[in-house]
Amino acid sequence: MNPLQLQNLVTIVGAVLVLAALGGVAWLGLGELRVRAMRRTRLAVSSATGDTGPVGAVGSQVMTGIRRLGQQSAVRDPAKLSVLRNQLMQAGYFNREAPVIFLGVKAAAMVVATLGVLLTMPMLLKGQGGLGGVLLAGSLAGAAMLGPDQVLKARRQNREREYSEGFPDLLDLLVASVEAGLSLDAAVTRVTEELDRRYPNLTIHLRMLVLELRAGRSRKEAWGSLADRLGIDDARALATMLRQAEEMGTSLGETLRVFSQDMRSKRMLRAEEKALALSAKLTVPLILFIFPCLLGALLLPAGIRLAQVFGKH
User: Would you state the pLDDT for residue 22?
Assistant: First the structure.
């Protein structure tokens, strides 16, 4: 092989190696670009499903501001924080930051109402708003001062009504489970599964009770905590009854049976009370709506007849 042929061979091999290197670099680059494209796609999907876009960012900023306002309110009056936490738990808010968020919402409502009143003040001073401006300012102030508390109160009342309606059924199922041979803790677990569809809010508290008992908390403290979360007298009476039965060593099944009969009697008395109060509650709509229609139906033909008779004369 002459030197020219050797030089050509080396040139060809070098060109092949350079092309292979360029191809490898291009392959690695395309792979890296593909991985980055997949990452961007996943991030776009997660942001679309998790609301981390502009609307989600604005919502997170608003929530951060509400938390800051709530923390300032909690620092100013820390004594009411525990009471507020119990009220929020009775209303179904179990998050640890629920009191702070609630106080922040109240503070934000006051800020918005103050701005609204300040914006309506120039109209009132110029005499343009009139009575409507006064009503608007008063409505904003009343909604800011009483709105969050009234919403919380209404939610608590709805939950307490459900708890009161479901408590007799809970006791009946507990009596049946205990008399069937189950322990009280196992009976609560079984009853929780049965009441899940009929009383879902009550079932949440029962699940928390089951978790506390499994975690090793004493039965007296766990049932007392359940009574505090529910906020109804029946739950407090049941917790007291179970504590006394445990301290005195009485039969748990017999005690639950007597208490269940008492709960059924109370539920029947509440139903009778509502039935007897129905006639008094129907008086107002009867006077306002039904009685005028009845008078119109009875007196209108006579009035038309009298008008025709006097019209002829």
Answer: 64
With a threshold of 0.70, does the pTM exceed it? no
Rounded CA-CA distance 58/65 in Å is 11
CB contact at 8 A, 167 and 237? no
| 80 contacts 123 by C-beta, under 8 angstroms | no
Per-residue DSSP letters for 176-207? HHHHTT--HHHHHHHHHHHTTTT-HHHHHHHH
Q: How far apart are the first and last CA of the chain?
A: 146
- Using a CB cutoff of 8 Å and minimum separation of 24, what contacts does 220-223 make? 220/246
Share of the chain above pLDDT 90, in %: 0
Q: What's the rounded Cα separation, in Å, for the pair 97 and 94?
A: 9
State how far the Cα of 301 lies from the Cα of 304, in Å rounded to an integer: 5
With beta carbons less than 8 A apart as the criterion, state whether 109 and 143 touch.
yes
In percent, the amount of the chain with pLDDT more than 70 equals 69
222 has pLDDT over 80: yes
196 token code pair: 């899940």
